[in-house]
Amino acid sequence: MATALITGATSGIGLTFAQHLARQGYDIVLVARDARRLDETAESITAATGRHVEAMRADLSDRSDVARVAQRLSAGERPVEVLVNNAGFGIHQPLASEDGVEHEKAIEVMCRAVLVLGGVAAKAMTSRGVGMIINVSSTAGFMALGGYSAVKAWVTAYSESLSVELRGSGVQVTALCPGWVRTEFHQRAGLSTSSIPSWLWVDSDQVVATALKDAGRGKVISIPTMRYRGLMWCVHHLPRGAVRAISGKITSKRKGPKPGGEEAR
């Protein structure tokens, strides 16, 4: 039976991926930090879909935990055919900061873990001639919104490069680049969203459905909704100076109180 592994799978986009893939007939491996939420999520998905759900507690800022997840991806028994690299968190620390701890953790979770897990999954999937890797990036990666933009720009570029490397292997790689999605992410990240127009918000179900449809069609960059595709077309064609000016205005409006912790999207 086909199996999908999702990181950051107990809330937001990650949870929605797990629910959609379970309904499509996949057994699920949930990866997240909170053991209680993992167990509750596993029970809920099994009750709703009847699929086998494996809960795997892991902190992707811990390299030994990343290695354990990588072992699961390379396992021959119940092989993983779909990997969704989703775990992530908001970044508050300025880029011009003497203390780079927050940025270093972001790179561990949203860059290094994506690189390691994507590489292991790609090798295992290529050996079987089939597989799908979806890396959750962001439209922020096309902007200049601080550390988060820098990290997500890397995720998108990595996904494109991996897709080129795996061309003809039977393994599809897609970078999902959503805009503002209705999840817990922004509250947990301490971001103010009061200035965001209602028409810019997208439901996580729509985001995930679009990502799975685009990946199934072989698209490497998935931007949910026509309005965001139009906006990103404009960003692509604007002078970079204009993009930086717009990014500065967005950044100044969305600062909020520092959160108590990080969580998956």
Low-pLDDT regions: 256-264
Whole-angstrom Rg: 18 Å
Q: In percent, how helical is the residue content? A: 40-55%
Biggest sheet strand line-up: 3-2-1-4-5-6-9
Give the count of structural domains.
Answer: 1
Task: Provide the structure class.
Answer: alpha/beta
The strand count comes to 9
CATH architecture: 3-Layer(aba) Sandwich
Strand-and-helix sequence, N→C? EHEHEHEHEHEEHEHEHH
Residues in β-strands, percent: 15-25%
List keywords for this structure.
single chain; 265 residues; Rossmann fold; disordered C terminus
Walk me through what this model shows.
The protein has helices at 12-23, 35-49, 63-74, 101-128, 147-165, 185-188, 204-216, 226-237, 240-253; strands at residues 3-7, 27-32, 53-57, 80-85, 131-136, 171-176, 180-182, 201-203, 221-222. With 265 residues, it is of the alpha/beta class. It has a single domain, classed as Rossmann fold. The strands form two sheets. Strands 3-2-1-4-5-6-9 form a seven-stranded parallel sheet, sandwiched between helices. Strands 7-8 form a two-stranded parallel sheet. α2 (35-49) links the parallel β2 and β3. α1 runs parallel beside α2 (35-49), α1 (12-23) crosses α7 and α4 (101-128) packs parallel to α5. The two termini are 27 Å apart. 45% of the residues are buried.
Short description:
The protein has 265 residues and is of the alpha/beta class. It has helices spanning 12-23, 35-49, 63-74, 101-128, 147-165, 185-188, 204-216, 226-237, 240-253, and strands spanning 3-7, 27-32, 53-57, 80-85, 131-136, 171-176, 180-182, 201-203, 221-222. The protein has one domain (3-253): Rossmann fold (3-Layer(aba) Sandwich).
